[in-house]
Amino acid sequence: MSSPLPQNESSRLEVLRSFQILQTSPEQAFDDIVRLATLICDAPIGKIGFVDQRRVWLKAKIGFAFDEIPRERSFSAHAILRPDLLVVQNPLADATFANSFLVTEIGVRFFAGIPLIASSHEAIGVLSVMDRVPHLLTAEQIDSLQILGRRIMHELDQRQTREAQSTHQALHLVPCHRSVTVLIVEDDDNLRNLLQRTLEGAGFSVFSAADGAEALRWSGQHEGTIEIVVSDIVMPEVNGVELSKRIRVARPETKLLFITGFGDQFPELGELIKSGANILEKPFLPSELLRRVEDTLEQKRHLVQKMAP
């Protein structure tokens, strides 16, 4: 059993990880939503599952004990491809789902799942109910599942907001950097916006670019004001390594922070690190970004102090 990937799979995974929900402990709010879903739909089995790269990780569940399900054998991998409810009335009669993990392991014979869609339109998981016998849903039950799905996303949005606020309040090591300008270079819109919000929330002045070519234009227009470049490595047109080399030709003192999950594919990074560049591995928390930027600033301050007479 396999399923096609969403067209926005890369950004979808970034959005999922930005919620920092994977591997978290059980929470009453999510357990209650699953319980309500099973009661409303008169189904003995239910779950909230978040679809990661290779698995469906279960935040809440009723009717079985698994903590995760292989993505390639899951109903959820198909449900996130849809804008609305996925109903499979008889998995055994459908070649797409007959070998599903829950069909073979616990005898599921009915599935209904609503995708959990972020405000940026990526489906990051599924709220679903199941039964061991054929089952039907009324229009009212379907409407209720949709309402509960929106409630889950509201809860996740609230968590994300609280995390951002607590990060901003707790990071005394980043007081206020109104005079420090950062250039963000990231081709993924969601990640770029997250980076910008995080840095601006800590008081930095921020320019952002969607690719290396745009970043070079920003650098030329604001020569002398950009102190740190925070850049992805893998980008269209001009990658992060080439971008940094071009910027440093004009401004050798510019500090560099690379964000990447593919650093080992760029041997040129070794020389850049020796010259003072830093690396932040994906995925990372907003607080880790701020700490690494502060570390980069400290390196620059020490260098200036050494050079001072």
In short:
The chain is an alpha/beta fold.
Unreliable spans are 170-178, 302-309
DSSP strand count: 11
Shape: elongated
Biggest pleated sheet: 6 strands, antiparallel
Helical content class? 40-55%
Structural class: alpha/beta
Index terms:
disordered C terminus; Rossmann fold; elongated; about 300 residues; 5-stranded parallel beta sheet; 6-stranded antiparallel beta sheet; about 20% strand; single chain; Beta-Lactamase; 10 helices; alpha/beta
Structure in words:
By secondary structure, this protein is of the alpha/beta class. Helix 2 packs antiparallel against helix 5, helix 6 packs across helix 10 and helix 7 packs parallel to helix 8. The chain is elongated. The longest helix is centred in the middle third of the chain and has 32 residues, at about 140-170. The model is unreliable at about 170-180 and about 300-309 (pLDDT under 50). The protein has 10 helices and 11 strands.
